[in-house]
Amino acid sequence: MKTIEELRKFFEADRFAAEMGAVITECGEGGATVEMDAGPRHLNAAGTVQGGALFTLADFAFAVAANAGGVLTVSLQNSISFLHAAKPGRLTARAERVSETRRTCCYDVSVTDEAGNLTARMSVTGYRRG
């Protein structure tokens, strides 16, 4: 199991997530939490957080959780549902492992806003390349 410091170092190369402002805040066996302060650059024309920003945050949480064990893992399939319009502010994505085999894994990711509203849910299937 990689430490949070090792994961932060590894994911420095994930420039898109870094430019979006995603930060790893927690990682443990089978799960990870990442956060992002959504501001004007993350908003759509309606003034809420753009779906792509929510997707990126959720996908990044999956990536951190799935790679914490040291086996390079990439996503094969993602399905996201947007449940509640997210306003600017702190967003938190929590990835939880559902299952894992030698070559595949499945995770559920929830994204919440500062008020604790569930704004999005993602289901991810990953491929373990290592």
Automatic annotation (TrEMBL):
Name by which UniProt lists this protein: PaaI family thioesterase
InterPro entries: Acyl-CoA_thioesterase_PaaI, HotDog_dom_sf, PAAI_dom, Thioestr_dom
CDD domains reported for this sequence: PaaI_thioesterase
Organism lineage: Bacteria, Bacillati, Bacillota, Clostridia, Eubacteriales
Keyword terms: Hydrolase
NCBIfam families noted in UniProt: unchar_dom_1
UniProt domain Thioesterase: residue ranges: 47-119
Pfam family, one: 4HBT
SUPFAM superfamilies for the chain: Thioesterase/thiol ester dehydrase-isomerase (SSF54637)
